[in-house]
Amino acid sequence: MAEPDQVQAIEKYDVQATEKKWQDHWDSAGTYQVENDDPRPPFYVLCMYPYPSGPAHQGHVRNYTFGDLIVRHRTMRGHAVLTPMGFDSFGLPAENAAIKSGSHPRPFTDARIEELKASIRRLGSMYDWRREIHSHDPEFMRWNQYIFLRFLEAGLAYRATAPVNWCPGCHTVLANEQVLADGTCERSGDIVEKRDLEQWFFKITDYADELLADLDGLDWPERVKTMQRNWIGRSEGAEFELRVSGGADNVDSQGADTSISVFTTRPDTSFGMTFVVLAPEHPLVPSLVTDQTRTDVDAFIERVRKETEIERQSTEGAIEKRGIFTGSYAINPFNDQPVPIYLADYVLMTYGTGAIMAVPGEDQRDWDFAKAYDLPIVRTVQPPADFDGEAFTGDGPAINSEWLDGLHMAEAKAKAIDWIEAQAIGVRKVNYRLRDWLLSRQRYWGCPIPVIYCATDGIVGVPDDELPVLLPDDVEFRPTGESPLNFHEGFRNTTCPKCGQPALRETDTMDTFVDSSWYFLRFCDPRDGQEPVNHDAARHWMPVDQYIGGIEHAILHLMYARFYTKAMGDLGLSPKEIREPFKRLFTQGMIRMGGTKMSKSKGNLVAPAQYFDTVGADALRLFHLFVGPPADDMDWSEQTDEVIEGCGRFLQRLWRLAVPESEVPRAGDAAVVGELERATHRLVDRVSGEYERWSYNTAVAAVMEFTNLLYKQGATEEAIDTMLLLMAPMAPHVTAELWERRRGGHIHEEAWPVADPELARLQSVTMVVQVNGKVRDRIEVDPGIDEAEAERLALASDKVAEQLAGADPTKVIARPPRLVNIVA
RNA sequence: GCCCGGAUGGUGGAACCGGUAGACACGGAGGCCUCAAAAGCCUCUGCUCGAAAGGGCGUGAGGGUUCAAGUCCCUCUCCGGGCACCA
What we know:
By secondary structure, this protein is of the alpha/beta class. The structure holds one RNA strand.
């Protein structure tokens, strides 16, 4: 019960009401809406658009807290900040849910989007919602298909046979993610087979070199760039032909006139080739098998074909079982010696030529194979004297190599390639690990691939004026997961746009990574009805100045988006000069719980809603900023709730300090006021720097420290106001409310404070005095003192005299104003 | 196997350029306020010896460079991630 004649109690901070008030205000005032002709310098901040799986989880909260902080900070620094948001709304989970519940993926997806949007709003994270895009918007689908057709015309999209994951139980192709680690289907449990099927591909390999080279200019985490470099996997070497021998011991071979093409990165070691190995699927195999070997070879090939990808990729199996002799020989062109031709499951048809020259002296796999099959080993690089390994892969002078002898690796490679080219048996060659992007999916809930198959005209693109090809709604989802488009006669049957005869529509849909490969370009002018990307708008905003998302997208999404940006530029679909989509990338760490990633499928989500309803969005945001470096993984532990509550307590403490009727003592003493002014300017310096280098955890620590200082020695209005400005991007609601009460107006429309360097300078610093590297005294000194003065002050210390015990120092290292070390 | 990260109090973390190790917070202990509690405020809190003053030890392990090492170099252990027969 309040005592009426007591001093009026400070109004308590009403978290829920205040957060709602400001979220409504920012929305209705359009604080974070921005026009394309805004005169302020442009800055594009983008969080990876999310897959709508329901209300936000902590990973979203973390992502959008960082993103929103940058948006608000940059705005206060005078930029026109583009901050769009959308939803990656196609994909399997919605379709699987539809199969389960009998509903349609669209209403299901739309409901999940509304849930996610509501929690993003509740976080107080601000976007220009006028620019919202969903992957399944008909307009977005239209331009998605339009781009596909331009890629098709340019030969960047093509159809080819590829081995895919086929589930015999479900009668459908599975995405790699649907195949479990043991090689079975996630739904039916059947063993997934590799089947050769006609699929759509994007020719990303055309851009391999540019994708590799342009990584150097990106301000991205080094480890993401490394992952992309490894994924592209550029290897330089040579490709050359080996004649198949028709020698006397090879009379029944039919391959006497054929030759085998091999790729090698070590042409310098060619004199050491003692056998050749082909992939079991190699097309030349039938012509190399002899009557004596046929039975065994066929059995071997049959066994390999039945192996799952997992078994085949395993290094566990005994090497003796992994290969077989064909019965034929090839001629090593370097020394004209015949070498036996083997098949082995570890040679992949999908890389290089599907055939290798084996050099056991300089390749460990070849060494192991040679040992197992009793094949000769010839060293062609001299290992160092102390080398006691098997194959030697390092550099050294060539030996046993005739005209290459004595040359080191680089020279020998060049000379060997020159020789190969002079002999007209091969060429210098670059190979990539990167494969073309298989984009077709035999599923319903994706963007239809806009082509028609005509008996007369073949593959025909859907005319632009008939776009978008939409998904029919009157479909029945089968429990097997087979796409209902296959059974929808109205969708499937159409007429050829060229000849008008009956034709069949493509029923495959696009990989959802296609949608996310250009959405950031569309955001620049998302309602443009003339073209997928408005060039002027893209020139104004692109590239994205700060892209933020999870490390799990380090390779696929970020590689595909880079490819799309380059390809669209080259085809005139977006400005050609925009070669890279994301200038700066930040990858936040994962949130783990009990050692594993926090995720819906693991069932270990801690919903943000419970914190919104108690401590509020500001406290949860502050927690995510404070808990540790943004790039690091964080563990959600039993202690986490207490830390979040601590952040809430800190905001209440801030409220009591800053709310106008506050009873906190004001600094009265002139010296204290002066010192506070300087401390304030130092805080501005410190926090501004920490914002720049993503050190948000220490930025929060700095304002906590400053609050403690204001409680201890009294506050000034200027100190409080400045701290509120610095905190406005971190805890937007409470700072907005306090600012309005203290000053009127809107804190997020204020300019970012700038420190006066003169005032920010320290007046005195603690100089450490060491004797033999151990701290013995601390002296307050002027920051401007010179070496001589520092040394004089240090030597005058009683503690030092005590340590020296009358002896003369042998050396004095003075690093004013911080440290003097006296060496006795 | 190869390529990246990482290891600091009871806990999350700080220390940006080689110069006071442990900022800030959580937890814990004690105190004030209160009839009491909650909330709030204040003090202490790396380990260790000591009543104290003060000393010793201390950043995964071992070596090295340096006046000085959490930070640089070498070797190793453990943990996390990526690629995994790429010729």
